[in-house]
Specification:
Blueprint: E1 3-7, H1 11-22, E2 26-30, H2 34-53, H3 59-67, E3 69-72, H4 76-79, E4 84-87, H5 93-106, E5 112-115, H6 122-126, E6 135-140, E7 149-154, H7 160-172, E8 176-181, H8 188-204, H9 210-221, H10 227-234, H11 236-250, H12 259-266, E9 279-280, E10 289-290
Parallel strand pairs: 1-2, 1-4, 2-3, 4-5, 5-6, 7-8
Antiparallel strand pairs: 6-7, 9-10
Helix pairs in contact: 1-2, 1-3, 2-3, 8-10, 8-11, 10-11
Length: 295
């Protein structure tokens, strides 16, 4: 593969475009919002500078990364001549399904269509498309340039040829592909989100504060980041969305989102991206402080 289109210039789309371009692929990143496109450009440049400081790339490689990416609002033209489309819009089933249906009509029959969904059914997203065999999940982890895993999600009609192509591409961009069957939350979030939800339940019951919960999981269990800090990084709205997918998909109340999580999302405290979640990020985003909750 040489030409890729990424739909959505948010956090995940930006990271995916960056890593694809870093390994020599020509990438079009598509978003209708000019402010989001401008921010995507800025973030890729900042992240490339961080890679330079860490010795991952050099100045020349940064220029190549930036030259390999085209930022555009044009949807139809940008996906016509690519070999892979990665859908990376917000975690909304109806929106994703519409995008994938549109792509199925616009793209040539041999173009692979992938979704970066973190929990939604690939089989359901591919339902009623003309070529469901070419539709697959590519669940990248955040931050994309750093995290080594891509969870490859195989739908009920995904072909072996599609799986093999995506496996090869994932290795080309120096990521580790691990193939899983289509199931609510796949493997990663089926295990991770209940743990985060239980950490929030522990906090809401007053068993321990934010700092203690996270430190216990870091120092005692060897986690690089505590579950509440990780929830902030993921986005509390995303955590809530995935838990709802798990609850509805399995029909099991053990996945029911904690009331404190629901309240925080309703109040707009979504974590790092809004500068407040279980931690405050308004003073120094690199050194957030734990919020004191009155339980």
């Amino acid at each position: 593969m040489k030409k890729i289109a990424v739909i959505g210039a948010g956090t995940m789309g930006t990271g995916i475009a960056h890593i694809m371009a870093q390994y020599g692929l020509k990438v079009s990143i598509i978003d209708l919002n000019e402010k989001i496109i401008a921010e995507s450009k800025r973030i890729i440049s900042i992240n490339a500078d961080r890679q330079i400081r860490k010795g991952v790339i050099n100045e020349k490689q940064k220029k190549i990364i930036l030259s390999n990416i085209v930022f555009t609002k044009e949807f139809n033209e940008s996906v016509k001549n690519v070999e892979l489309v990665v859908e990376a819009i917000p975690e909304n089933f109806e929106l994703k399904k519409k995008i994938i249906k549109d792509l199925d009509l616009i793209c040539k029959a041999n173009v692979i269509i992938s979704s970066n969904t973190s929990s939604l059914s690939i089989s359901s997203l591919a339902d009623k498309t003309h070529y469901p065999d070419r539709i697959i999940g590519m669940h990248f982890m955040n931050p994309v340039p750093v995290m080594p895993l891509v969870e490859i999600v195989v739908g009920s009609n995904t072909s072996k040829k599609t799986v093999d192509s995506i496996n090869a591409l994932t290795k080309k961009i120096n990521k580790n592909p691990l193939v899983v069957k289509d199931s609510p939350g796949f493997v990663s979030n089926r295990i991770l989100l209940p743990m985060i939800n239980e950490a929030i339940e522990t906090l809401s019951q007053g068993v321990a504060d934010v700092y203690s919960i996270d430190q216990i999981m870091k120092l005692g269990m060897g986690h690089p980041m505590g579950p509440l800090r990780l929830a902030d990084l993921i986005g509390l709205d995303v955590c809530l969305s995935v838990l709802k997918v798990l609850e509805n998909g399995f029909g099991n109340k053990k996945y029911s989102p904690n009331k404190l999580l629901i309240k925080m999302v309703e109040e707009g405290n979504l974590g790092r991206k809004t500068k407040r979640g279980f931690y405050g990020y308004d003073k120094d985003p690199k050194k957030p402080y734990p919020i004191i909750f009155k339980i």
